Amino acid sequence: MAASLLKTSSMSLRTKLLHQTGLSLYNTSHGFHEEEVKKKLQQFPGGSIDLQKEDNGIGILTLNNPSKRNAFSGVMMLQLLERVIELENWTEGKGLIVRGAKNTFSSGSDLNAVKALGTPEANFL
């Protein structure tokens, strides 16, 4: 089982084991279901999470949504999860710099996405 998990994709071993056993990265005891959360977050596009891996083992993670002062959109939240998984598997990695594009770190989350996720219609609260 472990050998097949390691060959299947670039996911971290922890993530592969969670998927293999049917568990989720999200805690369903609070009413969150991974696929529902991802589907809802995908409705809020804009920006990107960019990752550069340098030969010296230093990664540079850039929050790239300068028109909104690098606020996290729903898509960016999903991309952050993907980049973290990628970094978990980067065996040459030694350190990480997190920065924002265009001289602004981040103003937080896009409030439109936060409002939508917090409404009763979203069924997440």
UniProtKB/TrEMBL annotation:
SUPFAM superfamilies: ClpP/crotonase. It comes from the Eukaryota. InterPro entries: ClpP/crotonase-like_dom_sf (IPR029045), Enoyl-CoA_hydra/iso (IPR001753). Gene3D superfamilies: 2-enoyl-CoA Hydratase, Chain A, domain 1 (3.90.226.10). One of its GO terms (cellular component) is cytosol. Keywords: Lyase. Pfam families: ECH_1. GO terms for biological process: fatty acid beta-oxidation. One of its GO terms (molecular function) is lyase activity. This is Ethylmalonyl-CoA decarboxylase 1.
